[in-house]
Amino acid sequence: MEGPGPWEPFDIETALERVRAAIRGYAAAAMFELAERGHASLFEQLVGCLLSIRTRDEVSLPVALRLLAQASTPEAMRRLGRERIESLIRPVTFPEPKARTLHALAERTVEEFGGDLPCDAEVLRSFHGVGPKCAHLALGIACGQESISVDIHVHRVTNRWGYVQARTPERTLAALEAKLPRAHWVELNRLLVPFGKHICTGTRPKCATCPVRSMCPRVGV
Ligand code: SF4
């Protein structure tokens, strides 16, 4: 390997192509995995995302699958009740407030929207606990809406690449919306979450063997 680099200009298409190849074999981010296992409705995606907050995918994914096996619709989740939800989701962090949030999500979805959530970011964000990351990712996966979901991995990696220069995930989102070709908006999160977990990690990123190394300025590393 040549060093210290970069020794070729950064190109987002090439970078994403290399990331796509590099992450084959790693587990998909939890919400994409949920969709692949048949839980692709907006409600199910939001449930998966709310469970994953401050909890590793390895923990939240099996919990989401267990909960959705019992109640995959708002009506069924409402009937399940807060206490039962809490006992089913116990391995995730903050099970009690998360159970309350999930039950309230189900209840309001039934009462206000007849059990069918609209593909509308503002509506989704009006639910307690649903932030821009969950809303955008769920809309992208469940509704096919082009939206970018910026979590800590997307924020860290795109800034290390120098593709954006932003101090917060919110600013990274705005910068990406202005710059990233729309064809990659939904896919970006699916690619960069496993890439950020296994290669461009928070501490001690694996630059020596990274497939993007030749064009990465490694900002802040
Ligand atoms: S692992 Fe290193 S070389 Fe690869 S994208 Fe991250 S900072 Fe750049």
From TrEMBL:
Chain ranges of the HhH-GPD domain: 51-198
Listed Pfam families: HhH-GPD
Gene Ontology biological process terms in this record: base-excision repair, AP site formation; nucleotide-excision repair
Cofactor(s) this protein cannot do without: [4Fe-4S] cluster
Listed GO MF terms: 4 iron, 4 sulfur cluster binding; DNA-(apurinic or apyrimidinic site) endonuclease activity; lyase activity; metal ion binding; oxidized pyrimidine nucleobase lesion DNA N-glycosylase activity
Family membership noted in the UniProt record: Belongs to the Nth/MutY family.
Protein name: Endonuclease III
Organism: Melittangium boletus DSM 14713
